[in-house]
Amino acid sequence: MASLGAALLLATFVVCSYAAVVSVVGARRRSRPLIESGIGAFHLVTALMVAASAVMINAFLTNDYSIKYVEHYSDSVQPFFYKITSYWGGLDGSIMFWVFLLAVFGSIAVYVNRERHRELIPYVVATITTVQMFFLFLMIVHRNPFTTYLANAPTEGQGLNPLLQNVYMAIHPPSLYTGFVGMTIPFAFGIAALITGHLDDSWLRAVRRWTMFSWLFLSFGLTLGMIWAYEELGWGGYWAWDPVENAGLLPWFTATAFLHSVMVQERRSMLRVWNVTLVIVTFFLTIFGTFMTRSGVVQSVHAFGDDPVLAKLFTGFMVVILVFSFSLVIWRLPLLKARNELDSWLSREAAFMLNNWILLFAALFVLFGTMFPTLSEAVTGERLTVAGAFFNKWMAPVGLVLLLLTGVGPLLAWRQSTVKNLLDSFLWPVVAGLLAGAVAMLFRIPLWSAGLCFALCGLVVGTVVQEFWRGARIRKKNTGTDMLTALVGLVGRNKRRYGGYIVHVGIVLIFFGFAGNVRKLDEQVLLKVGQETKIGRYTIKSDGIKVSDDGQKQMTTAYLTVYVNGKEIDRLYPARWAYRRHEQEPTTEVAIRRTPAEDLYAVLGGFDLADQSATLQLVVNPLVNWIWIGFGVMALGTGIALLPERSFAFAMSKLPAEAAATSTIALLLLMLLAGAAPAYAQAGMGGAEDTRSSYYARTPFEKQMQHEIVCTCGACGHQTLAECRKDNCSTSHQMRGELAAMIDQGKNRDQIIQAFMAKYGGEEMLGAPIDKGFNRMAWLFPYLIGAASAVAVGFAAVKWTRKSDLDAAPAAPIDAALDERINDELRDLD
Amino acid sequence: MAHRYIKVTLTAVVLVLAFAGMMWTTLRQGTEYYKNVDEVLPQAHEWSGKQLQLHGYVVPGSIMRKRDSLEWRFKVQNNPARAAGTSGGVVDATYNGIVPDTFKDEAEVVLKGKLTPAGFHTDPNGVMAKCPSKYEAQEKSASAGT
Questions:
Q1: Which of A30-34, A377-381, A503-507, A683-687 is predicted with the least confidence, judged by mean pLDDT?
Q2: CA dist B96 to A290, A703, B64, B106, Å?
Q3: Do residues A335 and A269 make contact, with C-beta atoms less than 8 angstroms apart?
Q4: Do A384 and B146 touch (CB under 8 A)?
Q5: CB distance B137–A606 less than 8 Å?
Q6: Residue A365: closest C-alpha in chain B
Q7: Which residues partner with A598 through β-bridges?
Q8: Interatomic CA distance for residues A776 and A19, integer angstroms
Q9: Among A104, A208, A381, A498, which residue is least crowded by beta carbons within 10 Å?
Q10: Interval A626-675: pLDDT, tens
Q11: Cβ under 8 Å to B: A residues 511-550
């Protein structure tokens, strides 16, 4: 199988080079057959990469340890789900996964744009295949994932690192890669536009959606990374300005800048050089980020190891990208001349430009800070590092200015704002900002950074609400419908604009969560049984430590009780898990009590079984959950902006109302299912199955419960019901019987646990500490919002399409100027 | 036109200067020197009080913890414990808090903190025990890095 995989990679490389050459030659000679052949070869690359990926996944599933990569990142007891995700768990596989994604996205982009941007396609194909060739070359000559052991193939693998055996970690890399790889498509179109000289705005239209899509996944990947760091690494925070985190953030800044400046070009034909540059820089930064992560140039906790050869290859490729792209830009400068000049600094385009500068500055600054140790070593010979505090000091004002612009930008008119419309549009947002600031003052939050941040959050929310309100009011008047319908219609007609505003609300929530850091508490204590400690309003008492084993890992759990004002409010079970074959690196299982206001976060840092003492890190993280919720809102907004033009309204107007309702419900169910999937995946992590007892698990649910409940017989050493299968252990047999009976009665998980606790006492019999409801809530939230909005949109759209037939005569506008402005913008923006 | 270019240039110069000034002041506070034990010890008085990241190896058998507390005392030497030759300079270190699992005899560590006459005073959460295999299964041939 390994040789098949390696052959496939080699074949892909050959086909890639064919596609690149034939496309360019075809375009130069204007030969249709050659171009078609190039496109065909391009799709063939995708097919070959799909096949190669299938070979790789098959190798993981069949435990083919003769392949080094499989041996490194998998073992026979690994759950099915993680065997698949091991594909991108290591360096070689992640490069291959990169090429796979690029091939798939490239094929889609080329297929979608085959008619509209016919003249660009051959160069798009050539650019993408060149990038693919680079990565394939890396794999073939240096990092082949299909390398095998020549002799003595091992019979068992080393297993995926336990830290990565986590649902977030399974979806974080693909999501981040999707964001990174997706940025190649705009770059390819940009290069094609530069080469062909078709530098009107049409290439922008082709890539706008791709950039948005990639941006969404980049944001999602970054958020997942934060959640993973927060829940799995156990240091109490979510962002440490680690080089690898920064690598993901850099293209995010420039892509965000592009998404804004592209509007200026569409609307005012300005910033054309700038937009091309941003597309190139964004792509460059994705490659640069990959380079930083994989070559060992910067020291980082989670960089892949040192690899000087890879570093050299990457450096060469990056130099080629920069030289080639910017030569093209300079060559085409005459065609990229702006058609307009900036009329006034009090205009929306000026606000956009300022926003772009700041985002670019943020990117450069983070780049500088990340590379600083390497730079200082190269210049002075001394290795100087910058601490996280340095980044925070600089990025706090940068973030606040961006937040300010988020609030101010939408209020300014294009070209020039007059004093009258300034007063008119700024009044309520400023009032909202001042109110939010005053509330922050009431809570005695320091003005600098956190207090200001709250005030600006108020300003932005004020702006967004006002924009929705005014737009909806005018639409209501013009169409004669009710407010809700008008609102939906407004969003439907201007998905990008109003979706963008919803994204702004998400950003506000994220900043709101960041600002909570000002009241963060962090303490480290040593507690013996019965001892107490205080943090914030909580008193935490230790009830001791217990050790249990589930076959895959040894679990040491601290039992803590949390009191507020002398009343017990919760119990926490921070733990350390030592996986087999990874005993040296136990994972910390953080216990978090989540509430919307603050998280109480407990980490078992160390323990001494002899005197039952636990070393604990206790953290109070205010408002932290709003960061995750903010991402949900952001995803919703981007989703709305990404909806295909007109298709929604079109579909709705063609469908009878019942069908619309049914499809909405179906959509809703799908979303709920998607929401449940992560929870399920986590529950599925069990040990090996053993069915020698009378009460073997009949359903996944019963199996899950058997894994959750610990046998109390005392002889087996806290094995779970699924594992304690000794013939003489009547206790476990009896308990399994009780469990089966309860399941037959249709009791749910909580009821069963309650019943067992009542009968056998305490939570001692629970294999793993109870997962609290809010843990899931944070995750479900985006889906819930998505589902709710789907219902709202569906409902209103049905109503709206019916009413729009009546074609109500527009009522006389109250404010003619504002009316005109908004209608004008509605027309032009989308 | 000339007038406009002067304005643009002046703005740019002012911005760059302001930026450089701010960068300079914050960099002076924000940077930490990354040093090996042997680079620091000969000029101990010169380095004392400066924010450092001290790189070295835990001296075997030197880790001590005060009973029922999180106070640690240990020694850090310049060269890996099992390397041929001398251990290089040795410095006493103190720390208060939770140590990572990888912190044990012979471990390669980076300590954040300040050098004082009494030894190296490590900041809270300032112990980073290096473990090159933390995220990537360690290649047999690969060295420990740095």
A1: A683-687
A2: 37, 44, 12, 20
A3: no
A4: no
A5: no
A6: B23
A7: A622
A8: 47
A9: A381
A10: 999 999 999 999 999 988 765 455 444 444 444 444 455 555 555 544 54
A11: 524-526, 528
CA-CA distance, A216 to A204, in Å (whole number)? 18
Q: Tell me which residue in A384, A394, A605 faces B34 most closely, judged by beta carbons.
A: A384
CB A562 within 8 A of CB A733: no
pLDDT in tens, A60-69: 999 999 999 9
* Predicted complex ipTM: 0.75
Token duo for residue A63: 């435990």
Min Cα distance B26 → chain A (Å) is 7
- Check B34 against A158: CB less than 8 A apart: no
Which chain B residue shows the shortest CA-CA distance from A169? B135
Contact B135 A617 (CB under 8 A): no
pLDDT in tens, A252-269: 999 999 999 999 888 888
Find, in chain A, the residue whose alpha carbon is nearest to that of B143.
Answer: A306
Residue ranges per domain, chain A?
Answer: 1-160, 519-626, 675-807
Reply yes or no on domain B32-129 having CATH 1.25.40.10.
no
Pair A718, A699: CB distance under 8 Å? no
Written as six digits, the tokens of A609 are 């079984």
From B31, B98, B132, residue closest to A617, measured CB to CB: B98
Fold classification of A675-807 (topology level): Helicase, Ruva Protein; domain 3 (1.10.8)
- Residue A389 in contact with partner chain B when CB distance is under 8 A: yes
Pairwise CB contact (< 8 Å): A305 & B139: yes
pTM of the model: 0.80
**What is the per-residue pLDDT across A218-232, written as a single tens digit (0 to 9) for each?**
999 999 989 988 988
Structure tokens at B103: 């912190």
Domain ranges across chain B? 1-31, 32-129
Q: Kindly state the DSSP code that residue A685 receives in the 8-state scheme.
A: -
